[in-house]
Design a protein that fits this description.
The structure holds two protein chains of two kinds.
Chain A (H helix, E strand, L loop, with lengths): L8 H6 L4 E12 L2 E12 L3 E5 L6 H9 L6 E6 L9 H4 L2 E4 L11 H11 L7 H10 L15 H13 L5 E5 L7 H16 L3 E6 L10 E6 L2 E6 L1 H9 L2 E7 L5 H8 L9 E2 L5 E6 L2 H14 L4 E7 L3 H18 L10
Helix pairs in contact in A: 4-6, 5-6, 8-11
Chain B lengths: L12 H18 L2 H21 L7 E6 L5 H8 L1 H4 L3 E7 L2 H9 L5 E4 L4 H6 L7 E4 L4 H33 L3 H21 L2 H31 L6 H26 L3 H21 L8 H5 L16 H31 L2 H7 L4 H31 L7 H25 L3 H18 L14 H5 L2 H15 L5 H26 L3
Parallel strand pairs in B: 1-2, 1-3
Antiparallel strand pairs in B: 3-4
Helix pairs in contact in B: 1-15, 2-13, 2-15, 8-9, 8-11, 9-10, 10-11, 13-15, 13-16, 13-17, 13-19, 15-16, 16-19, 16-20, 19-20
The chains are: A alpha/beta, B mainly alpha.
Chain lengths: 343, 512
Amino acid sequence: MTSPATAPASETAASHPDAAVLLRGAGKSFDDKWVLQGLDFEVTRGEIVGLIGPSGCGKTTTVRMINGTYRPDAGEVRTLGRRPWKLTSQQRQRLGYLPQQPVLFDSLSLWENLHFQASLNGVRFRRKDRLHELLELVDLAGHEKKLVKESSGGMQRRLALAATLLHRPSLVILDEPTAGIDPILRARFWEHFRELAAAGTTIVVTTQYVAEAAHCDHVGLLAEGKLLHYATPAGLRQAAVGGERLAVTTSRPLTDEELVTLGQLEEVGATLGRGERDVEIVGVVADAGRAIPAMLSWLGERDIAVEDSEEVAIDYEEAFVLLVEKAADRQNDGSGSNLRETS
Amino acid sequence: MRGRTQLQPPRLRPVIHVLGFVRKELFDLLRQPRLLLVLVAGPFVILLLFAAGYDQESTRLRTIFVGPEDSFYENSIQSYTDEVDRYVEIIEYTSDVVAASDQVTAGDADLIVVFPNDPAETVLEGRQAIITVIHDKLDPLQQTAVEISAQVAVQELNAEVLEALVGEAQEAIEPVDVTLERTVTLAEQVEAVAATGDRTQLDVTAGELRTSIESLRRTTQVSSGVLTSLRNEADPEERAAIDEFDTSLSELDVALETLETSGDEQDVRDSARLVAEAADRLDDNAETLVAIDPEVAVRPFVADTESLLREPPNVNDFFAPSALSLLLQHLAVTLAALTLVRDEHVGLFEVFRVAPISAGQVLAGKYLAFLAIGGFTAAALVTSVVLGIGVPLRGAVGWVVLGLGLLLLASAGLGMLLSALARTDTQAVQYAMLALLAGMFFGGFFLSLDAFRFPIRLISWILPVTYGIRWLQDVMLRGDAPAAADVIGLVVLAVVYGAAAWLAFRRQLAVR
């Protein structure tokens, strides 16, 4: 087994002293088989980074490298400025980690489980208010005495999330916190994550719900142990379609020549086509915000009325599928390099 | 939404971590009433049943004696009942060996002792008569008991025969003091007759003296023989007296022979004087050689056991400290063996690797929890056996508390080491059961530690229960302080197992 190509990690790490999490060419192997290769991204303090990908793509292995459970076999990983497995007890106090499987004791009540997790993280004895506050957050107030074995899987996940946050960590690593949670509560969770981030908490979160990428500041798209894309949510969608998709509906169909001319405008710079109807002009441009006004102006000059114009945002599911397909195409073409966008 | 810090100051955080585990382990156990019942009430019930149900009489073997009808055996059996009573309960005497065998087969009897039909004939032929002992015991300990009982019975029978012989022989001869007095008198008469020169009278008197000497020799032969065989144990003065008596008797013989064979009157008178002097010396040492009671002659020793203990323990007393130690070791080993495996099973190890908690703090918390649970159980058990069953507690309570504390610590350490080696709950339980079995066989519960050869005996010394049993027996039954070796042993085991468990646990938590 040869090590995958990596960036000069230590210098890179040293050049980003404020990064809460930094991965440079990080890789991990088990039984001489690489399960993660060439992970290359950083998480600045106070942002939310989502790691998205299908089951088995390497999300959990990535967070375990970040929290110090796994040592990378290639590249470099820094968490809070240090190699994560070298973090001192004081530094680990600043970490909050929610494993994929909730770590709870069946025979203890929800309250007692929360107490135990609080003790693990050194939360002071006078902790009742904080415990109540978190139970409210995860919608478990009133269930304090219920035993874990008598509670549903969703309740257990919520309790585990509460346990992760109760010592107010500055770096929160959440492995699929919203799995099995109903959409309304998921929205509340994300709202709370945003509040935490606004207050300076850094959050690394994995999820199988691709749409949750919208809540993140940056998104890492993982598939088959590789980081396919790392970008802002908007950047992810752009990367999926190669730019921004727009649609303009006119009063009459444009001729082929008019379409070519319109596409050659400097602000547009793209090949335009017709949509489902003859009067619909569609295309992918670098910047829909600049392209649409230019197109409206050009059409106005030619007395062609515009009935509707919009930037067509693709959903994240579609973007995810497109990016995975592109990656597969590149793999088939023999070009295996990762896409990466710094934004 | 950053609130004020919720964390304890760093120097107090280890306390928070440790107490968190104590609380978690205690609640975890309290929420499992059945497990608590098995762990706490179970051992006590076992002790109680043992004490209530143990029948010391059951160790006596129900025995049928088989021999000829109207034989002297029937009476003899009754005569040595006292000697074998500890081992044998006599059911009946019969001449039907088949019926006796049927009773053993049916479980109504344990043992058959078959006497030979005509032992006298066999003995007269110069062979030993055989007493056959028949049993169907599987238990090697009971087999040994059978052999001991048979040996004791045969020895008693032999002694009885011998006693009869000696008694009859002694009855045939007159008392030693009478014979001695007559010998001395005759010796004086020999000297007096020799002085008169009456040869005929002298030969008659000398002949009487020789007969008297032979009688004296026979009378004192048994006593002399017994005393001679006990020479090493006899008093030096006693030994000198025996030697002098024998010497005087020999001198008397020699002088008498000279007197009888010599024709010279002067020689005869000198010999007669020597005869009288030797007879005097016999008298001087005769007190030592009185005629010994036949029973004493054939059984010069009887056992009279005295214990240095204030009150020798009965079987329940003896086994109570052993059972206590074994049960507490099993409790602590089982709880500890399951704990880390269960933590790993629920995924807590992953949290341990990330959380600001050390392996030592995790183990310390668990130790305290098991010490609390074990301590409570131990207090309940000791109170129960002392107040409920009446097992003595003669030594200081403090020693008992310290001993049980160390036993629980060492056992919990052993359990956590086993837990670190186990991969599943089932494996952990199996390891705990192995520790229990090892404790029963090698810990001194049933068999003395001296019964094991080196290096197998090392197994005994690596088990906490070995020291626990000796410690509690010393304190509770003897009223002594524990032996220094046991204190050191338990402390060393507690430290070694604790350190090994810590190292193994750290290894499990190591980054991968």
